[in-house]
Amino acid sequence: MNALGAVHERILDGLEREYPFAPRSFAVEGAHLSYVDVGPRDAPSVLFVHGNPSWSFLWRKALARCAATRRCVAPDHVGMGLSSKPQRYEYRLARHVANLVGLIRELDLERITLVVHDWGGPIGLGALFAESERFERVVITNTACFTGLAAPWRIRLCRTPLVGALAVRGLNAFAGAATRMAVERPLSRDARRGFLAPYHDWQSRVAIQRFVEDIPLSGRDPSWSTLVDLERRLPELARLPVTILWGERDFCFTPRFRQEWQTRLPHARVRRFEHAGHYLLEDAGEPALDALERCSAGGEP
Q1: Would residue 290 count as lying in a domain?
Q2: Which end of the chain is more exposed for a tag (fewer CB within 10 A), N or C?
């Protein structure tokens, strides 16, 4: 067993029931990207793209549900989940988009339904705009890909020099808090352990901090221009069926973000989950999974 396999084995120990998938590895520039690839290879694809501080574990129930009839792919961004976690790396939005584009091309994914959450919004849509002919539809859950709406003070605090690093990497405050603040219903012990398993020490939390630091809040931030370019291309989504599935009690991506999506994509179908938070699938359970499964097949949410 190589070093990466040993790391996977340690992280996944005890999670077999929650996450019964065999991770695969794809080499990107300066790192290895882990991903799940399940379901019939000749079927239309569903590409699940997570955010920070989650990983493909976020999609475990959707993967199990959709893989009967779809090829389901869920990557872990470099530095997250089961992917390698280089301490010196270009943890920028454009790099994550390029990595995802590389994976799509490597796997030759076609007829893709893109499902995005949190940072997965701009990363996944960046890949869609780069490989638009491969995509058939989009499902948007609790994310943003536009400027103009502020991040919560809790997240801004984690960007503070020194204090932010100590909190995020030293105390695991960002990932740890997410297992409580991102849900309205308490996670099970196994689910909470699963979300936190890849982030067990200072080194393994590097990308959590880098993602927070890379949030484009103003023109002074390095990824601001990348986000603005993506925002300008949002009207291109008018050619695709778009569904918005939204947890209305999200402390970060509040209903104002959902309303902004509806303004920008007036053709989108919308289903609101009134009692769900940021981790929609954890809170809304079967109704959200049913809606996601129907949407991935072109049905109504």
Answers
A1: yes
A2: N
